[in-house]
Amino acid sequence: MRETVVRISGLTITVVYAVLIGWLYARQPATIAEVTGGLSAAIGAYHVDQQAFEDGLQFFRRDQFSEARAAFARADPAQRNSRTQFYIAYSYYRQGWGRLYQDDELYRQGIEAVDRAIALAPAGRIVVDDPTLRIHTADELKVELDTGMRRDASDLNPLRIFRERK
Amino acid sequence: MTPAREAVYLPLMALTVALLGGLRIGAPVVLVPPSLFALVLGLLLMGVLVQSGALAPDRLLSESRPPLANVNGFGVLVTLFFASAQTFAALTPDSGLPRVLFSVYFLVLMLNTLAARPDRVRVLQSLAVTFGAAFVLNFVVLDALSDPEGGRLKRVLQVLFEGITLGVLSQPVHHPATGYITFFAIVLFLVTLSSLPRRLPRPSRGLTVLQPADHDRGQLPR
Which uninterrupted H or E stretch holds A20? Predict the structure, then answer.
């Protein structure tokens, strides 16, 4: 009887440990916060810090994008919330946008963030109902960022200076 | 072998090796899965262990054992395979000519060991020496040759060395913590190997020694 208990316990522990290792290899969390956040999200216990998120929104609307990202990172330390990641990507877009040129590095980070947001959202669909934004879906934001990174003849169009930031 | 060792200790030790062997500390922390070649080397090592008697698969999987015990035994084999592959992956440099050389060295070593048919003790000793040497070369020698920090003389020597070798030996320098973690993983792997169920000596079918008392009982031919 005791042997059976030991064998079943060992098997259970081994399977759980193996699944955890497989999850770590698949997700590649870079920080302890991402590990704990990912594990709590797996059991549905992960929550965004609402106060920090609201702080981030206030900064975002005042065009203080670095401060906004710091607050969003505090709100979603494990990078598990698609809406927060959408705003982070949007902050990279707005900060990197220029009438004559875009900041490629910020746009690249924006693409990474919007890809994270899409991966986290159910069925990859994100619609943010925020009247202060001009882009409401992750798909539009991703296209905007991708377009900014592309080099083509339209970059030489002088009418580009009349376009507006979204 | 006790059920606890088979069901708990061995799989957990092997899984820990599989986890730590892929850990690369840096910014960010990365978990590197074993390459396909490391999987092949891991399989060859399993073959070496079985052939030498360091691992007796029939003591983990057989018809005479209860199904639950067989499941535990299968778990040991699977986790040991991944631990073996990850150990080779951890000891192989990340790029360039050293990666090719280490891979070929490990492959030849495994094939040679299979052909030589050493016993359990010699295989374990050989693996300890091989893994130890590979660790020193990868984490001490190559890191020292590739480290860009240091005095002017060291940098001059490095430039000369890179010029002579056409830069094919330079590697990304490991974070110090990666070396410590890999060292611990290798030691744990060797402990795991030495704790595996070994092949038992076969019962003797030779002469039966009879005592004089047997003669008195009429058990010896006259």
Answer: helix A2-27
Q: How far is CA A84 from the centre of its chain?
A: 6
First to last CA, chain B: 46
Location of structure tokens 């910014």: B27
Q: B140: Cβ–Cβ under 8 A, 6 or more apart, which residues?
A: B179
Q: Between helices B120-135 and B67-91, what is the axis angle to 10°?
A: 40
Burial zone of A159 (CB within 10 Å; 0-12 exposed, 13-18 middle, 19+ buried):
exposed
Residue identified by tokens 């905007």 is A144
Closest CA to A137 of A83, A96, A88, A92: A83
Cα–Cα distance measured from residue A35 to residue B79, given in angstroms and rounded to the nearest whole number? 23
Both structure tokens of B29: 């922390």
pTM given for the model: 0.72
Please give the backbone phi and psi of residue A48, each rounded to the nearest 5 degrees, phi first: -80, 145
Is the pLDDT score of B94 beyond 70? yes
Q: How far apart are CA B119 and CA B132, in angstroms?
A: 20
Instruction: Find the CB nearest B31 among A3, A10, A28.
Output: A28
The answer to whether the beta carbons of residues A24 and B19 sit under 8 Å apart is yes
Q: What is the mean pLDDT of residues A23-46?
A: 80
pLDDT of residue B16: 96
Does any CB of chain A come closer than 8 Å to the CB of residue B4? yes
Backbone angles phi and psi of A42, in degrees to 5: -65, -30
Residue B87 to residue B51: CA distance in whole angstroms: 20
Contact present, A149 and A107 (Cβ < 8 Å) = yes
B164 at interface of A, judged by CB pairs closer than 8 A: no
Contact A111, A149 (CB under 8 A): yes
Query: Given an 8 Å threshold on Cβ–Cβ distance, is A10 in contact with B71?
Result: no
Question: Other C-beta atoms within 10 Å of A128: how many?
Answer: 16
In whole angstroms, give the CA distance from residue B82 to residue B33.
Answer: 10
Q: Report ipTM for this prediction.
A: 0.80
Q: Tell me the C-alpha distance between A110 and A90, whole Å.
A: 7
pLDDT higher than threshold 80 for residue B171: no
Mapping DSSP to helix (H, G, I), strand (E, B) and coil, where does residue A102 land?
coil
